[in-house]
Amino acid sequence: MSTTFMGMPAVRDTAGHGNLHASEPFPQAATRELGNAQLRSNLRHATHTIRDKRLKVVGELDDWEALRDAGAATKNAAMANLPALLEEFEKNFTARGGVVHWARDAEEANRIVTDLVRQTGSDEVVKVKSMATQEIGLNEHLESEGIAAFETDLAELIVQLGEDKPSHILVPAIHKNRTEVKDIFLRQMPQVDPDLTDNPPELAMAARAHLRKKFLSAQVAISGANFALADTGTLGVVESEGNGRMCLTLPDTLITVMGIEKVLPTAQDLEVFMQLLPRSSTGERMNPYTSVWTGVTEGDGPKNMHIVLIDNGRTNALADQYGRTALNCIRCSACMNVCPVYERTGGHAYGSTYPGPIGAILSPLMTGIEAEDNGSLPYASSLCGACYDACPVKINIPDILVHLRGEDVAAQHQQRKLPSEMDLLMKGAEIALSSGKVLNLMEKALPVGRLAAGRQKKIKKLPGKLAGAWTSSRDIPAPPAQSFRDWWKKEGRG
After folding, report:
1. For a tag on the chain, would you pick the N or C end, based on fewer CB atoms within 10 A?
2. Is 297 a residue whose pLDDT tops 60?
3. CB 224 within 8 A of CB 128
4. CA atoms within 13 A on the CB side of 278
5. What does the alpha-carbon distance between residue 352 and residue 69 come to, in Å, rounded to a whole number?
6. Which UniProt keywords apply (predicted)?
C-alpha cells in the first residue's frame, strides 16, 4: 500500500492533527474519571438503554449478519480503491456546482474553512453535528479568528454551553443527566424561562427557542457528512432532530467538512448502510431525518456549496495493513455502548475526539503510536470482544488493539538504551522454557514459593515494578508442592 495519497505524502508528524492525540496517559485519566460516581451512573443508564434498544431492532432482521458482511465488504472495497473513488467524487461534485478543497491536516482544514467564511462577510455560522470538525478543533479556531460557531444539535449545544467536551460519538452529552442540562440552560441561555424544569420536552423547547433566530439569520452553515457517493457527487447526513435539515437548506453558503474515508462507490450502497447505521447507533429501524443533496440547485437551498476533504492521518491508517479496517467505521458508537471500560471511565479519559474501543485504535493509527500519550490507548481494553460482535461493519477491534500494543512495545524498545524489567523477565522465561534441564532446576524452587505464601496459601506481595503492580490489587495462589513432571515420575509413569 502506497504511503502517498492524491499527491500528498503520508507522514507521522503529530503537528496539526487537532484533537486526535491524548493529552495524558489513559490510566492516569481513567483513574481520575473513575472517582466520579455521577458520571458512572449516567453512563450506565444511557449505554444500557441504547444497547437494549439495539438488540431488539437487530433481532427483528433475519439477515442482520448478511447485512454486516455486505457493509464490511463494501467498505473494504472502497478503501482499496479510495484514490479513484475520491477523484470520481470530485469530478461529479464539481460538475454539479460544488467546489472541492483538499486539506492535509487540521491546520490546513481550519484555514480553508475560515477563509471561506470570511469571503461571505459573515462573522457567525450554524453547525450540524460533525465529528470531523471536532477532530480538527474548528470551533476553537473560528473563535480565535472572531467567528462565532453555534452548535445546533441538542447534545452538542449542551456540551458547548457547558464549556465541556463531547464524551461519546453519537451522544456527546451522554455524561450529563437532565438536571445538569437544566442547570446549564438556566446559566447560559439569556432568554430562558427561570422556572424551567428538567422535563425533557421543556428542555428541548428551550433549546429550540434559543436556536430559532440563528437558523433564520445565518448566512453560512457548516456540516459533516455520513456518506459521499462517488458516482453522483452526492452528500448525505443522518440526524434525529431536524436541525441538520435547517442548516442544510436555509443559509446561502454550505461548507461540508468530511474525512476522505466516507466515500462510497454508488447510491445503491446506501441501501445497506441505511439499515446498519440507525439500528446500531440509536436502536431505531430508520433514521428520523436523512438529508441527501447533490450540487447547487437554482432557487432551492444554498447558492454556494463547498466540501473540505481532510486526510489528517487517514493515509497513515490506510498504510497499516493490519489496522486499515478501522477506517471502515461509520461512527455508529455501538462499540462504545457495549464496552465495559468505556462504561466506567467515560469518553474524556481517552483524550481524543474518538473515545471508546474505536478511538483506542483510530487515534493511534492516524497520528502514530508514539504521538503524545496515544501509546496507552490500545491498553484501554479488556479484549473481551464485545465491540467486534456489535460493530455493524465487522471491524476486528481486539485484533487491531493487540497489533497496536505490539507496535507500542517495539517503539519503546527503540527509545530505551537499557533493557526494562519486562525485557529481563521475558528473557528469563525464554531461557527457562527452552531447556528441560533449566526448567527442572527452576522447579526445585517451588517449595520456597509455598513457604513464602504462608498459611493462607497466597502470595500477597512481590518485589519489582511489574510484579509489585500485579500484586497491589490481587493475590497469587501458592505454587504446587511439586511440579507435574515430578508427580509423573513419582507415579511411575516417567
Report:
1. C
2. yes
3. yes
4. 17
5. 29
6. 4Fe-4S, Electron transport, Iron, Iron-sulfur, Metal-binding, Repeat, Transport
**Is the Cβ–Cβ distance between 140 and 169 less than 8 Å?**
no
Q: What backbone torsions phi and psi does residue 465 show, to the nearest 5 degrees? A: -70, -50
Helices (H), 218-327: 243-249, 270-281, 314-318
Q: Record the pTM.
A: 0.86
Confidence of residue 3 (pLDDT cuts 50, 70, 90): very low
pLDDT at 372: 65
Name the residue among 215, 246, 254, 235 with its Cα closest to residue 117. 254
Domain range annotation of the chain:
4-315, 433-490
| C-alpha to C-alpha distance for 100 and 133, rounded to whole angstroms | 17
- CB neighbours of 373 closer than 8 A, spacing ≥ 6? 21, 22, 23, 24, 25, 26, 351
Cα-Cα end-to-end distance for the chain:
54
C-alpha closest to that of 334 among 140, 108, 71:
71
CA distances from 301 to 91, 252, 296, 305 (A): 21, 7, 7, 10
Angle (CA) 310 349 133, round 5°: 20
Task: Give alpha helix (H) positions in 137-268.
Answer: 138-144, 154-161, 178-188, 200-217, 243-249
The string of pLDDT tens digits covering residues 334-384 is: 999 999 999 999 999 999 999 999 999 999 999 988 776 788 999 999 999
Fold of 4-315: Rossmann fold (3.40.50)
Query: Under a CB-based contact definition with an 8 Å cutoff, are residues 460 and 415 in contact?
Result: no
Q: For residue range 252-261, what is the model confidence (pLDDT) as tens digits?
A: 999 999 999 9
> What type of residue is 85?
L
**21-61 pLDDT per residue, tens:** 777 899 999 999 999 998 889 899 999 999 999 999 999 99
DSSP state of 381: -
With cell 465529528, the residue in question is: 131
DSSP H or E run through 307: strand 304-310
Distances (CA, A) of 299 to 20, 375, 395: 39, 51, 43
Contacts of 46 (CB under 8 A, 6+ apart): 171, 174
Q: 418-424: list long-range contacts, CB under 8 Å, 24+ apart.
A: 421/464, 421/465, 421/466, 422/466
- List, for residues 149-199, the tens digit of each pLDDT value: 999 999 999 999 999 989 899 889 888 999 999 999 999 998 899 999 999
The secondary structure of residue 479, as a DSSP letter, is P
